[in-house]
Amino acid sequence: MRNVTITALVALALLAGVAMGMPTRSYDSCMAVTQLSSSYNYRLYWNQLNSSSTSISIAMEAQVGGWVGFGVGGEPTMIDIDTQVGMMAGGGVVVDGYSDGPNQPPMDTNNDNTNVAVKYENGILTAEFDRVLNTGQVKDNVWIAGSNSIVAAVNDGTPPEVDSEYSRHDEAVRFPVDFTTTSSCPPPPPPASPPPPSNSPVTTNSPTVSGSASAVPMMIPAVLAAIAAIVVAMA
Ligand SMILES: *[C@@H]1O[C@H](CO)[C@@H](O)[C@H](O)[C@H]1NC(C)=O
């Protein structure tokens, strides 16, 4: 009976996550970066690492129009930070860079980010990617299964048109994150309120309608999983 409860709770948690418009993939850790202004609602997600991990799955998310960024290592003077900057340029990209001072970090020759997914929905920019912890390249830092000194940064300006050109961060903070730990975020703020009701018939093209409709197909597997778990345990 205990297993049923746990499985059903996990399925419901997944379901709740999808319904709240979180990243496309699921992550076992989420950190609300409260060191940045709260209006950005910056959240960093990752899948927990262990001593055998060789890569990591990351999502960075903020209420910004320009870009959402994340860097590993380097100096407070913005030297030698291994930067990942997510933006909608070209349909969505996570730029792999390496800073050499208080300027836009030059792009790496090799972009080592894989499984990249970037979306801008309801005013929230979400950038997801996978990354090998040690690429062996000079213009990358080694990310460790342990405590990393990381930088979270945002730009709330206009979206960059090309991936190589983006303006300076509006805010950046540095703090340690141990990727072998898990943490969880408080529930995100509710989405922007829908337009006031009118007498005209509801159109299927309104942003609120299509936004919630897109979540429904993704919710179905979680519901089925919850039902299946209960049925199996009762058999
Ligand atoms: C260690 O983490 C990797 C992902 O980084 C995962 O695939 C693997 O199952 C984990 N191993 C253990 C023993 O938890």
UniProtKB/TrEMBL annotation:
The keyword Signal applies. Keywords: Membrane, Signal, Transmembrane, Transmembrane helix. The chain crosses the membrane at residues 215-234. Residues 180-211 are annotated as: Disordered. InterPro entries: DOH_DOMON, DOMON_domain. Residues 40-157 form the DOMON domain. Residues 185-199 have a biased composition (Pro residues). Residues 200-210 have a biased composition (Low complexity). Residues 1-21 form the signal peptide. This is DOMON domain-containing protein. It comes from Thecamonas trahens ATCC 50062.
